[in-house]
Each structure stands twice: as structure tokens, then as C-alpha cells.
Amino acid sequence: MRLGIMQPYFFPYPGHFGLIGSVDEWIVFDVTQYTPKTWMNRNRVLHPEEGTNWISVPLAGASISILTREARVLDPKAAARSVLGKLSHYRPHVRRARYDIACGLVEAAFAGSDDSLVSLNARGLAACCAVLGIPFRSRICSSLGLDLPPSPGPGGWAPAICEALGANAYVNPAGGRSLFDPGVFRRIGVDLLFAETAPLAYETGPYAPQAGLSILDALMWNDAARVAEAIRAGTVLTPA
User: 198: which residues sit within 8 A by CB, 6+ positions away?
Assistant: First the structure.
């Protein structure tokens, strides 16, 4: 089993889905301290005038004193309205079907009955993968009952989880290469791989293209099949 382990991000950039598509199982990593003002509760789309605009999920009392699994959305209905409002300027410039798909993903993410940020982001990832045709077998780390070291450091969580779940390969974004000791993975019989993901370039109508935007932007301007193919073609795995 090839494993991916990442924090629960809010409608991440397209390359994130290249990583998801390269693994057999995805572990939503929610057992460490929550970090405010990260990609877990916000992302970027195009601004209606120029540049970029934040779409975000305000949290109830978020701070570094809570664990990620404890993060709660302050007002899910209000947050959903805010995100959809910040997407509304796309509507005159894109195909109606694409606009409806992107907004439907937001609605799916916020459709849960609880206020858990982890659950919201997991639903968002699942909805995006369904639209893109990417298999998404996921589990929430805190629900697995794993006997993990109390604080193994940034490079220690992955081998511990891989060993506990019986994985034989682990894939991480290439940008985190320096965090990991390949020897640790070799000792437990796990292949360590890194995913290089190419930027997805596309036309953005009357707006100047911006790098690194949310998957929602890509799906506004492109058919889902085209985005999925670009993600697959732009993802390359290399061994440690």
C-alpha cells in the first residue's frame, strides 16, 4: 500500500491532487497542534479587480493551543455564503456548467452536520476528487487509534504511521524532502518517494493569471477532464 499523509487543506492548489492521485490511501493528518493562518482554513482565488483574494473559514477561538482535530468553524453557513460570494465575479466570464461545478464543491464541503474544520476539508477533498475522477480512499488519523510517539518531529510522523498501518511506500511533496531521513524508511521496509508537480497554466479571461491558486479557480476556467489530465501528466514521483 502506497500512503500519503497531509494536513487537511481547504480547496488546495491543483498539484495537491496529483499527490492524492499517486497513493492508494490518504491519511488526513489532524493529531498535531493547529497552526493559524495556513492553508488549512484559507486559500486564494482571483480578485474581481486584480490580483488575488482570500477565501477563508473563520474559526471559533483558533490558536496554537488546540490540536488540528479540535478546530471548529465559527459559523459554517456564514462561511459558505462568504466563499460563494467571493466566487460570484467569475460567473459572467466562465461557462455556466463550470461555475456550477466549482460552487457545488463549496456547497458539498459545507454540507456536513458538524462544525469540524477537518471534516469540512475532508469533504471538500472528496468532492474535488470525485469531479476530477481521482480515487480518494481516506481516513482521519485521530480516528485510527494508532499508538504513535508523543512528539517525533516533522520527519518522524510519517514513518511511524506507515509502520503502524503496514504501508510499503510513502509519498510526500518534493518541497519537504529535507525533512526526511531515507534510512529511517529503509529500516522499516518502506519506499520513500517524492512527488514533483508541474504548475497548471491556463487562460483566465479578463484577469491576469496568478500562480498557485485554489483548485476552484482551475475548475472555473477549464473542464474537469482537462484539469485531471494536466494533473496526472504533471505529477512525477522520484525516489529518495
Answer: 15, 233, 234, 235, 236
